[in-house]
C-alpha cells in the first residue's frame, strides 16, 4: 500500500507518460504505450541484406544483417531515437534493445559469444553521458542472455555527422576510425555488433572490420532501424 502511494506521488511530479504519444501509461507499460509499440514500422522479416551496399554483402564473415524497424523521417521511431540520443532517455535504449532481442531470438542465430556496441568517440561520450548503442546492446543481452563487451573496440576519430553525406562519402568518412583495445580476445569468437540506426552500413561495417581482420570467426550486424540515403 505504501509503495503504491509513493509510486502515485512520484508519477504526479514526474508524469508516467508514453515517450511516443504523450498519453498516460498503464502500470504494465514501460516507457512506450502498447499502441505506439504495436505501431512501430517493423520490418517483419528483419533481414535487409539485399538492400545494402555491395561492399557489405561481399564480406563472407558477415553472418547476417538485421533491423527491427524502418526509419521513416518524421515518424514515431525517429522521435523515440531522438529521446534516446539527445534527451537523456537512456532507459529507452534498453527497452528498444529488448524488443530487438526478441526478434533476433526468433531468427535462431548461430552461437554468439559477445555483443559489441558501436562505440562513441570519448568527446561525444562525455557530452552525451552514455552510448545509446551500449544501452540497446544491454537490452538485447538481457533477452539473449549474452555479455556486452564495450571495451573491445575503441573509436579513435571523432567524425562529423553522416546525415547529409552520400553513400560513397559515408564510407570515406568512417574509414579507419576504430581500433582494438585487446585483439587477444577476438580469435575464433562470434560477435553481434549493435547500433541504433544502419543506413548504408558504413559505420557498423567499419567497426565489424576490426573484429573480422583480427580473427573473429563471424559477425552479425543488428540495429533498431534501417534508414535510406540518397546518392
Characterize the biggest β-sheet: 4 strands, parallel
Q: How large a portion of the residues is in β-strands, by DSSP E?
A: 15-25%
Q: Average pLDDT across residues? A: 82
Strand order of the largest sheet: 1-6-5-2
Query: How many distinct domains?
Result: 2
Strand segment count: 6
- Detail the poorly predicted runs: 1-14
Please give the structural blueprint.
Layout: H1 2-13, H2 34-38, H3 54-58, E1 62-70, H4 76-86, H5 90-106, E2 114-117, H6 122-128, H7 132-144, E3 153-155, H8 167-173, E4 178-180, E5 190-198, H9 202-213, E6 218-226
Parallel strand pairs: 1-6, 2-5, 5-6
Antiparallel strand pairs: 3-4
Describe the structure.
The chain has 2 domains: 39 residues, no CATH class; 185 residues, 3-Layer(aba) Sandwich (Rossmann fold). Helix content is 39%, strand content 16%. Helix 4 packs across helix 5 and helix 5 crosses helix 7. The radius of gyration is 18 Å and the shape is globular.
Amino acid at each position: 500500500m505504501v509503495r503504491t502511494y509513493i509510486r502515485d506521488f512520484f508519477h504526479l511530479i514526474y508524469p508516467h507518460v508514453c515517450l511516443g504519444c504523450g498519453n498516460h501509461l498503464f502500470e504494465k507499460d514501460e516507457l512506450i504505450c502498447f499502441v505506439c509499440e504495436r505501431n512501430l514500422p517493423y520490418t517483419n522479416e528483419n533481414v535487409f541484406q539485399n538492400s545494402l551496399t555491395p561492399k557489405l554483402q561481399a564480406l563472407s564473415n558477415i553472418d547476417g544483417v538485421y533491423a527491427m524497424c524502418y526509419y521513416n523521417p518524421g515518424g514515431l521511431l525517429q522521435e523515440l531515437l531522438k529521446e534516446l540520443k539527445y534527451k537523456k532517455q537512456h532507459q529507452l535504449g534498453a527497452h528498444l534493445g529488448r524488443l530487438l532481442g526478441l526478434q533476433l531470438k526468433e531468427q535462431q542465430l548461430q552461437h554468439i559469444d559477445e555483443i559489441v556496441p558501436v562505440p562513441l568517440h570519448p568527446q561525444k561520450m562525455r557530452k552525451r553521458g552514455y552510448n545509446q548503442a551500449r544501452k540497446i546492446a544491454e537490452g538485447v543481452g538481457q533477452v539473449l542472455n549474452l555479455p556486452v563487451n564495450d571495451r573491445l573496440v575503441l573509436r579513435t576519430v571523432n567524425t562529423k555527422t553522416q546525415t547529409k553525406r552520400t553513400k560513397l562519402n559515408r564510407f570515406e568518412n568512417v574509414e579507419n576510425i576504430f581500433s582494438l583495445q585487446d585483439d587477444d580476445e577476438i580469435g575464433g569468437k562470434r560477435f553481434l555488433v549493435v547500433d541504433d540506426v544502419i543506413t548504408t552500413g558504413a559505420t557498423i561495417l567499419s567497426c565489424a572490420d576490426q573484429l573480422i581482420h583480427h580473427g573473429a570467426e563471424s559477425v552479425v550486424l543488428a540495429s533498431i532501424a534501417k534508414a535510406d540515403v540518397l546518392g
